[in-house]
Design goal:
about 350 residues, alpha/beta, homodimer
Chain lengths: ~350, ~350
């Protein structure tokens, strides 16, 4: 069927999010959620949300949330932007910062939303091939461009890219915006974030999310930190798209969770410990596991096909993520769940790999 | 200060939302919120939200909410799109449907976000002047264009545009998308919505919001209803911008509120009754009041300046909306609050207009 108005449509190939099975009793290790729920403190706040406050528009400036984030990261409030998950923050960033005829640069194997945003906003792009160990080659980014975006740690590989290399890229690209997508940085080593570089580089934007380390994927909060001029331009675009993006629940719970830092540190430690143990268990069973600085591992088996393991696991209600994409189509991305969930995965693998 | 990267920025003049004073004890009649909070039923659901469900990504398809809306409007689920307030829905609509070199058409006096979205996405537009009674002239829209958007009832005028005139516009514009923004339609007469026309016109999109009649501005829910092909194109764009826009609270409460229709009908009746009484009170005091089909009135006084009344009211903690815009810069837009709030407004006016 065709319509008389079809020539006026923006036709795009959308991003495909990981499956969200609506049934219970699944081991869901496909979207890098945090297996530990919000703290008891947060639960209390959830159950005391004021119904009457839903009647009014939320604060469009998200002042309470922005202030808590600014205090947490020890930056001025003018350097913080908040949005509906880091996807919203990144979409706004692409729209705000990538408006050049020159291509923006990102890796061939990275967050698969980058080319989707580029296509949506008609931003030209060039993919830079990771090396054979799935590492970024710095020199690929030392070339004229319309902008740079690097996920660090990278997804789905889990690999951390050294900060000294990012500095080289920032130094070269002073006339482009460089976005470092730090969705998973809380699972890397302390001090590996680039947030402390925003004073030195006015072209640097860091993006973050509450969906992984902060156990609040269902609340949809992401944020960006950068020079106040960058944040101002982003806010102008945000206010030109939707003034009130953060609902009352997100503002209230989001502000509280930042103050709840001990719980969060504890959860991260547990996940890192499980990750190390699980990585070893996989290696003991013939898997090659890339070094992970995230809450997932990216692994391939020397003999068994990733797609077949993926399908067999799904039949047992265990969900991994599999990307049918050149160079990584024999890898599985497995979120780190609770210890008992990973034990169940190991039992499944032991029965599959005889 | 200037930056080396500034040539790559999308520089826009953002929309300015109505003020959201964070203090209590104000009479807030500036953003057309509903003075009656959510029902007791909804309050119960709010206080029983499951904290653990915030850990997981929400359903990206918003199935529960979409199903309830489809059932309520008696349309197929494939004809419903949901977003973070109708601003989000409209932003996605502009991006999806207005991609022509020909100008889109909208009124000179209407929702002031339309030109902002057009500028953001570089959509050419032509404003069509309302007549001297602030009514739409149908013939202005019977001309070659890149799309049409009409707020009905219109804001800030509050005036309803007859459905038979919209049909003429739809008939003429079969090769453009025509958006009817029905944010305020629940305060107009029964049967005045254009939703029943979607079977006849595959180029018609209706947008709606939970922020006015449904008392949930703080939850951020809007939706669109139209031909399944339109909705599919919008969803492709939405999934190319942000897969998970609706958080767990919005999905859970949004679905429940649709079922809570008796409460909602009752609230609307009360607001309409207050509107009629208040309009009369204003007229008794020398105001000209445009006929309102919304939850606000648009009024100008024969002797006193709107801007001065606006400022004087604000000093008394009464917030109206004033637009410093040609043709309407002697009008006040006053949201219909509770009866006691409108009585307070009348007392203020009586003291001001001596």
């Amino acid at each position: 069927m065709s319509f008389l108005w079809e020539d006026k449509i923006r036709v795009v190939e959308p991003y495909t999010p990981g499956e969200q099975p609506q049934k219970n009793n699944v081991i869901k290790l496909n979207t890098n959620e945090n297996p530990y729920g919000p703290s008891d403190e947060i639960k209390k706040i959830i159950n005391n949300l004021s119904a009457d406050d839903f009647r009014k528009y939320p604060d469009p400036t998200s002042e309470s949330l922005v202030s808590e984030l600014a205090a947490f990261h020890n930056v001025d409030k003018s350097r913080v932007f908040v949005g509906v998950g880091s996807d919203d923050v990144l979409a706004v960033s692409f729209l705000t910062f990538f408006n050049s005829d020159k291509p923006i640069l990102f890796a061939d194997i990275t967050y698969s939303f980058y080319p989707v945003w580029a296509d949506l906003f008609k931003v030209p792009y060039k993919v830079c091939k990771l090396d054979d160990d799935f590492r970024i080659k710095t020199e690929d980014y030392l070339t004229d461009n319309g902008g740079v975006i690097i996920a660090n740690p990278n997804a789905p590989t889990g690999i951390y890219f050294d900060k000294s290399e990012i500095i080289k890229i920032l130094e070269y690209n002073k006339s482009s915006i460089v976005i470092i997508d730090e969705a998973y940085i809380d699972f890397a080593e302390d001090g590996s974030s680039c947030i402390d570089l925003i004073d030195r580089y006015d072209n640097l934007l860091i993006t973050r999310t509450f969906s992984k380390s902060r156990s609040l994927a269902g609340l949809r909060i992401g944020y960006a930190i950068g020079n106040e001029a960058l944040i101002k331009y982003m806010n102008d675009v945000k206010y030109s798209f939707n003034s009130y993006t953060m609902n009352y629940a997100a503002l209230t719970l989001g502000s509280a969770v930042i103050k709840d830092n001990d719980y969060f540190e504890n959860v991260i430690s547990k996940i890192k410990a499980t990750r190390e143990r699980f990585s070893q268990e996989l290696q003991d069973r013939g898997f090659k596991v890339l070094p992970s600085s995230t809450n997932f591992v990216f692994a391939c088996h020397e003999k068994y096909s990733a797609e077949e393991i993926f399908n067999a696991a799904k039949k047992k209600q265990i969900y991994f993520r599999f990307f049918k994409q050149s160079r990584i189509d024999n890898f599985l991305r497995i979120t780190i769940g609770k210890d008992e969930e990973m034990d169940e995965v190991i039992r499944f693998l032991d029965s599959y790999i005889k």
